[in-house]
Design goal:
With 319 residues, the chain is an alpha/beta fold. A five-stranded parallel beta sheet has the order 4-7-10-3-11. A two-stranded antiparallel sheet has the order 1-2. 36% of the residues lie in helices and 18% in strands. It contains twelve helices and eleven strands.
């Protein structure tokens, strides 16, 4: 075949060797399509999380998927990394208290076909309509910030019914067989009982009944060390082990309500990378952590984090 010939995208079974599961197959597309996320080759999947995501993508059976867990636990990253390896395009939106159903469905906008031409009002599909038409995964981050009356617009389409867009002359959008809905949030739609996630609201129980759900937790120390070693290989192993220990202690204190801050895997990698970047500074460990985390948290939390670091690193923390 001519090298310039484009492969036509089609639904296929993708071997999961890139997930570390050779011989196992999942639905996907045979070639990358516009909208497919970029993969991080150093990303490590957790077996339980991967099992839930792949099971849903293969056979949604009229469900949506809700990934629930504390901030920085990797909810969104997990679905995006899976989609990247399956060549599955994603329509993504991060919700807020002002998100309305039309932000998902679409709206009329004033636009011109070409620069300088007279603009006119035209309908523009939102991420929900695009995903339904083209067989994409719709990812809604922070779903528990949305008014439950607005989120109820998803109820019928999750179950496979068409979307009727009355604002666009009653247009009927039938769901593509590869259409999926994944939502992520810090609460399970039951409201925030901890006070750590202001703005979240209790969701309609009838709406939540349409999702299968998985409770995320932070990776273990061993998993974080593996991620850290792959992402920042130049960090000495003894430092990486203690950094992962610090992250684990901060995550535990955050979940129990003892601390108002946490350390995500993203923040852990940032700390390690900055420590290497500023290795010529008087105290690269502390300097890197100040930039990565300490400068944006409360003073009382800074002191608590400092004590945890001192406990983990001993005299090295003050060098």
């Amino acid at each position: 075949m001519n090298a310039q010939t484009k492969i036509k995208p089609s639904v296929t079974k993708v071997d999961m060797a890139s997930f570390g599961k050779p011989g196992v197959q999942c639905l996907g597309y045979n070639t990358p399509i516009l909208g497919v996320p970029a993969a991080n080759d150093t990303y490590k999947f957790r077996d339980d999380v991967l099992r839930v995501i792949i099971g849903y993508l293969n056979s949604p059976a009229g469900d949506g998927l809700a990934l629930i867990g504390p901030t920085g636990s990797g909810k969104t990253t997990a679905i995006l990394e899976a989609a990247a390896r399956l060549n599955w395009p994603v329509q993504s939106i991060t919700a807020s208290g002002r998100t309305e159903a039309l932000d998902l469905i679409g709206t009329f906008v004033l636009m011109a076909s070409n620069p300088g031409e007279q603009p006119s009002m035209r309908w523009m599909d939102g991420p929900l309509a695009k995903a339904m038409k083209q067989g994409h995964i719709l990812v809604i981050n922070e779903f528990d910030l949305i008014d439950p009356a607005e989120l109820s617009a998803l109820n019928d389409v999750i179950e496979g019914r068409p979307l009727v867009i009355s604002q666009n002359g009653g247009q009927i959008v039938k769901p593509h067989p590869m259409f999926r809905i994944v939502v992520t949030g810090n609460t399970a739609g039951t409201g925030d009982e901890t006070g750590m996630y202001p703005g979240t609201v209790r969701q309609n129980i009838a709406g939540m009944d349409r999702y299968r759900s998985w409770l995320f937790d932070y990776p273990t120390i061993e998993e974080m060390l593996e991620i850290l070693t792959a992402t920042v290989p130049q960090i000495p192993k003894e430092f990486g082990e203690k950094m992962a220990l610090v992250a684990n202690k901060l995550q535990g204190a955050f979940k129990s309500g003892e601390l108002g801050c946490t350390m995500s895997v993203r923040c852990l990698n940032r700390w390690a990378r900055l420590t290497c970047d500023y290795r010529g500074a008087p105290n690269a460990l502390k300097f890197g952590l100040e930039i990565a985390l300490l400068n944006k948290i409360r003073q009382e939390d800074k002191e608590a984090v400092g004590q945890i670091c001192l406990s983990a690193f001993g005299s090295e923390w003050e060098k």
